[in-house]
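Hi, here's the filled form for the chain we discussed.

Project: internal
Contact: R.S.
Residues: 391
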Amino acid sequence: MRLFGFVLAAALPLVAQVNALGSKDIAEGWLMLFDGETTWGWTAEGGAKWKAAGGTLNSDGAESGWLRTTTQFADYVLKLEFQTAADGNSGVFLRAKKGAEPHKTGYELQIFDAHPKFPTGGIVEHAAPLRKARINPQRWHEFEIVTLGSRILVKLDGKKVVDLNDTKSLNGYIGLQVNKNKPIQFRNIRLRPLGLAPIFNGKNLSGWQSVQPGTPPAQPAEWTARKGQMHVLKGPGQLETKALFDDFVLQLDIRANSADPVFHPNSGIFLRGRTNAFWSGYEVQIRNEFKDNDRAKPVDFGTGGVYSNQPARRVVSSDNQFFTQTVIAQGRHVSTWVNGYPIADWEDTYPEADGTKGRHAQLKPGPISLQAHDPKTNLDFKNIRIRSLPK
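And the returned structure, exactly as it came back:
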């Protein structure tokens, strides 16, 4: 109980701006699930139409349905705000699966005062609210939800309403519900993954190994560790974990160092590659360069883009400044955030590798690898942490 309370307390700082993250939030690993402008990272189930307008994700209630994230999440702190009429009927789905019954495959956090057993703040068919709540149509209400293993703890407007232990679902999509003729709007939807553990001790390269290209380079990559940071110069080269990972949440802080404003260091993070295989697996790009002074025009897929598959939506990060990169890989889906902003959301539709030639989905466990791209490589990495995800 004490440990759970500590986790929650560490996640509570409020954000002053709507649909934005502050520097403290970014450092703590918070992710924007709604960018304030688009439905990127969400997909609709059912007939309801959803749109991003006026800084909200909303539906007019012409039809019923739900809007779900395209990424699944396991253990996290989730914050969101909602506003609806006094007789509104909506909900937030947690750890749900795709399809028409998210309240059965996952958990439905109720937004409906008139439900006889599970009114606003309760989890339908699992937990009645610990205190009575009322929807005020003149204000925004806030849910704060912690899922940690079998535990689900919910606060509504700062007051605890649910404390549930249940193992029905430990991983799944987050969803927003709309019922016919019951318009609803949401904003400030943000999430902080929980349970990540360091894979770099900040002192040495224990747990990592260097991999060289087939032809020895003129300037092999030089990897060092000092004062909490991993530093690399020169290249090409690669440093990979000895441990293998398939489905995971990865967060790390990166700085690309450049003394020349027209030169932008090139690097990447490889996942699900083959052990001791040079630059194999999926690559999440590190390159803070863009065209025409427009950050929405990345060069060479841009930081956070899935190399050769999906470019970054925009280049959020800059050289000579630490930025936080988040990668979630689960099955065929890879999603990324840079400084908490959603960057890539990609699904591999190719068949899994079967030993034949051609392109294949890479779903088997592999190392996490950091790339030294060329002789001009100069990067720092720190706070490298990961959490394997349940299937």
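Let me know if anything looks off before we file it.
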